[in-house]
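note to self — DONT lose this again. spent like an hour looking for the file last time. sequence + predicted structure for the chain T wanted, 206 res
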Amino acid sequence: MIGFLKGRIASKSAPQLTLDVGGVGYEVEAPMSTFLSLPAVGQEVRLATHLVVREDAHVLYGFATEEERRLFRSLLKVSGVGPKIALGLLSGMSVETFARSVRAQDVAALTRIPGVGRKTAERLVVELRDRLAAPLIAPGPAAAGPGAADGATAGGAQAEAFEALVGYFGYKPAEATRLLDAAGAGTHSTEELIRRALQGAAREQG
């Protein structure tokens, strides 16, 4: 098992990045929460990792904090939840928001994440509620090294939100653009734009 990687970012395009570790390029998939904390290409970063072994591939997932990885691993233990849904959950809400939603049995909040149906959301609440009863998930330091942006500009936030909707949640570019236009650009952060876009999509489906 590969516990962590520390190296230079060779390339990144959500949800994938390539880390150059001693001359070896590791392809890593990461949630949007991690992507937002990454420094620029060429800078060094340390990511906690989890390796998923499938019949056709070995896929490495990277996380900015140990809390993100811990939640990812807990999600994979829930019936019907695979890496794609787990990555979507971590991209659609923070670790703290997810924990609050589960503790409050807020199924509606969980079903706003594309790919999470009501039955899956109910399983998440039932199977994780006791594990999250204690404050096992606390904010952890970002893993990004020097050069990480302190905050995105409005245009940067719009671009990052677009990348998340297409790369993580499977929306077509035109649909992602429409949802973001409806959410309103303004000075919203990337996280707020994603949240508003997903809420808008949920309202349309409801």
